[in-house]
């Protein structure tokens, strides 16, 4: 018996599609870039990025609602209580995604003088880059070696 073709599988429960429902808008990734670089307060983000106030409010609320960020109160002397935004464990797990996007952008979209930000190992200072490894420990140097296959949640199309 032959294996079903990719067209035979339903993608109604696709996790890439679900992830893009949380992250799939430019400003959301810009907000995450800011938070990963240490900018956690609304006004600081708005000033640095130029994101319209309502768009920033919506993106932060969506990231909090989806458990990527949490709000922490702070108060400047004589001012009302405000909130800053901190990564949750779910948010920290997005670091490889941001690094992969940065690597791709650095390779294809950087200015002639180079990329504006680099990611480095805190201990030794060496630049980071992502690599693909299978669970048996093989290092994949050619992305053509990667093969999508149905997972345990895959369903055949009706």
UniProtKB/TrEMBL annotation:
<feature type="region of interest" description="Disordered">
    <location>
        <begin position="139"/>
        <end position="158"/>
    </location>
</feature>
<feature type="domain" description="HTH hxlR-type">
    <location>
        <begin position="14"/>
        <end position="113"/>
    </location>
</feature>
<dbReference type="GO" id="GO:0003677">
    <property type="term" value="F:DNA binding"/>
</dbReference>
<keyword id="KW-0804">Transcription</keyword>
<dbReference type="InterPro" id="IPR036390">
    <property type="entry name" value="WH_DNA-bd_sf"/>
</dbReference>
<dbReference type="InterPro" id="IPR036388">
    <property type="entry name" value="WH-like_DNA-bd_sf"/>
</dbReference>
<keyword id="KW-0238">DNA-binding</keyword>
<dbReference type="InterPro" id="IPR002577">
    <property type="entry name" value="HTH_HxlR"/>
</dbReference>
<protein>
    <submittedName>
        <fullName>HxlR family transcriptional regulator</fullName>
    </submittedName>
</protein>
<dbReference type="Pfam" id="PF01638">
    <property type="entry name" value="HxlR"/>
</dbReference>
<keyword id="KW-0805">Transcription regulation</keyword>
């Amino acid at each position: 018996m032959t294996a079903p073709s990719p067209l035979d599988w339903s993608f109604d429960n696709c996790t890439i599609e679900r992830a893009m429902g949380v992250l799939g808008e430019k400003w959301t990734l810009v907000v995450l870039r800011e938070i990963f670089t240490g900018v956690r307060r609304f006004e600081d983000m708005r000033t640095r990025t130029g994101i319209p106030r309502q768009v920033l409010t919506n993106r932060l609320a969506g990231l909090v609602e989806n458990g990527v960020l949490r709000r922490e109160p702070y108060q400047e002397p004589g001012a009302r209580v405000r909130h800053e935004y901190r990564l949750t464990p779910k948010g920290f797990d997005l670091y490889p995604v941001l690094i992969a996007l940065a690597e791709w952008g650095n390779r294809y979209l950087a200015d002639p003088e180079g990329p504006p930000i680099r990611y480095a190992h805190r201990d030794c200072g060496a630049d980071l880059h992502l690599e693909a490894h299978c669970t048996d420990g093989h290092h994949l140097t050619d992305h053509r070696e990667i093969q999508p296959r149905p997972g345990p949640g895959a369903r055949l199309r009706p």
